[in-house]
Specification:
It contains 17 helices and 17 strands. With 540 residues, it is of the alpha+beta class. Helix 7 runs antiparallel to helix 16 and helix 8 runs antiparallel to helix 9.
Length: 540
């Protein structure tokens, strides 16, 4: 039976959109039953909640789009629900079906003011608890929050809302930390949180009993800014998300816009984008290695990783003009053609990297201190990885085959041979090894492409003002840290009505509580390092 037929058997009034990608609109009363059916489906259980995208459709109501995927068949579906009550907007929670929904629903509440029934934690996520209004609503007053220099109070009590049998909504208070908890702040100025992330950590002796991430210290309102920019202007903001996946982030946005335009991309561009994405992956994984070892007290390997990474940045700079921030991909292709020495230098780099990677393993991988601190530490089961949406190397270290390049191929990934690196231990050492093995796999991908780049255009000409057809569109890529998605709703204007990015790092930070409980406080640094999140990507 087709998925839409299964849904209509439960919700006869379900409607599938006729513009853009297929989105199934449901009545709020039907939503929970459909969600439960999809989650429990025996043929293709939708056990991976990719994202929840909050929406303000004006007079048509406030609501959300739910993007689901089966980890077994990789089939995808998108659901849409809304409520007309803007003053008291409530939707049913699905955090009991997918663990990642707990933090994703908090994000929707933070920006749209939609409260989710039976979600135990309805605190703000990125903004201050005393923030007035909900910034991603279309009627938000931009002058309603003058600069506030007062210290922010910790929100140790949160609200949970639920339906009583008579249909009325009630609330109760839940305690985050009480007076008996011994809470330590790690960050936001701690070098090993890798940016301005604050982890409120309660301890029993030296053992972690709870981790509560506090996000938003570098929140810049990128998704709000997108609503007033033209499509070419939105590209610059992707480079500032996960800056170690800058090529890949921008690739996703360009791909989404190009698909909506029906634009055919030259084969030369597809080769160039794939090679750049894989160089970026090596760049990121080398920095991962360097910083993880530095966090654990090793200095020499830090210089090893930076030595090889500089070679990649030199190659980038010659062609793109940038080292950290990459503004190379554009709608229709790339900004400029490859530097004449690009192919020669890439091939020389790969030969060099293969010759020195043994040194990386000799000095750290087999080191007794490294193996003692990483093996069996920070366990994450495959089921939890999927439910938490912990994609990328973190999920693959737990045995979850989630590589977008394999299961939803784009660019040249269906034309090259490569292995999806999987481990089953689910510990910190497995997460480390996945990324070290992926460095070599990326070299293998590049070697298959570098001598076969076809001649042709490096960019298709497009109009300076682009208007996309009405509808919902999305694109997925495998960044250095996992699945990065672009979700776009167009109303036919020159600016997106809504442009949302799936943060790769938000589910990883949310997973910290699950992964760290029962481990020692000293293990938190190594566990956080192997999860490999980047803070601007989380905060956006």
């Amino acid at each position: 039976m087709e998925l839409i037929d299964k849904i209509k058997a439960i919700a006869p009034e379900a409607v599938c959109s006729e513009t853009g990608e297929a989105v199934i609109t449901l009545k709020v009363d039907d939503f929970r039953r459909v969600a439960e059916m999809l989650r429990a489906d025996k043929e293709a259980p939708m056990d991976y909640l990719r994202d929840i995208v909050g929406m303000d459709w004006g007079e048509k109501g406030l609501g959300a789009l739910y993007y689901l995927e089966s980890s077994q068949t990789y089939e995808r579906v998108a659901l849409k629900i809304s409520t007309l009550d803007r003053e008291n907007a409530f939707l049913p929670s699905v955090c009991d079906l997918w663990k990642t929904a707990e933090i994703k629903e908090r994000e929707v509440f933070d920006f749209f003011g939609i409260r989710f029934l039976n979600n135990p934690d309805m605190r703000r996520l990125f903004l201050r608890e005393d923030w007035k209004g909900y910034p991603l609503r279309k009627d938000y007053d931009m002058n309603s929050n003058p600069l506030n220099m007062e210290n922010e109070e910790n929100a140790d009590v949160t609200d949970e809302y639920f339906l009583k049998p008579d249909g009325t909504i009630c609330g109760r208070k839940n305690i985050v930390f009480d007076q008996k908890d011994f809470v330590v702040n790690i960050g936001p100025q701690h070098p090993s949180t890798h940016g301005v992330l604050r982890l409120r950590t309660s301890l029993e002796g030296e053992t972690i009993s709870k981790v509560d991430p506090i996000c938003g210290y570098i929140h810049r309102g990128i998704e709000k800014m997108n609503e007033s920019l033209t499509y070419p202007q939105t590209l610059a903001l992707t480079d500032r998300l996960d800056y170690l996946s800058a090529h890949q982030n921008r690739h996703a946005l360009c791909m989404c816009i190009e698909q909506a335009m029906g634009l055919e991309i030259p084969e030369r561009v597809q080769y160039i984008r794939t090679i750049m994405d894989e160089l970026q992956r090596i760049d990121s994984h080398l920095l991962f290695y360097s910083c993880l070892v530095m966090d654990m007290g090793g200095l020499t390997p830090f210089f090893y990783g930076f030595r090889e990474r500089e070679m990649i940045l030199d190659i980038f700079e010659e062609t793109t003009g940038g080292r950290l921030i990459q503004n190379y991909n554009v709608i229709g292709g790339v900004q400029a053609d490859l530097h004449p020495d690009f192919q020669k230098k890439v091939k020389e780099f790969i030969v060099h990297l293969r010759s020195v990677i043994k040194d990386y393993h000799d000095i750290f991988t087999g080191n007794v201190i490294a193996t003692t601190r990483l093996k069996g530490v920070g366990l994450l089961s495959k089921e939890d990885a999927i439910s938490l949406g912990a994609t990328g190397g973190t999920g693959r270290a737990s045995g979850w085959a989630n590589d977008v390049r394999k299961h939803h191929p784009y660019a040249m990934y269906d034309k090259v041979d490569f292995k999806e690196i999987l481990y089953t231990e689910g510990d910190s050492f497995a997460r480390y090894m996945v990324r070290m093995d992926e460095i070599m796999e990326s070299c293998h991908i590049i070697e298959q492409l570098i001598d076969n780049i076809p001649e042709g255009e490096f960019r298709v000409k497009t109009k300076p003002i682009i208007k996309l057809p009405e509808g919902n569109y999305s694109a997925s890529v495998e960044t250095s840290r996992g699945e990065f998605d672009v979700f776009l709703e167009s109303h036919g204007d020159k600016s997106p009505y809504r442009l949302h990015y799936r943060s790769t790092g938000l589910p990883l930070v949310h997973a910290l509580d699950t992964v760290c409980r029962g481990n020692k406080i000293a293990d938190l640094i190594a566990i956080g390092g192997t999860l490999d999140y980047v803070i601007p990507d989380i905060d956006r």
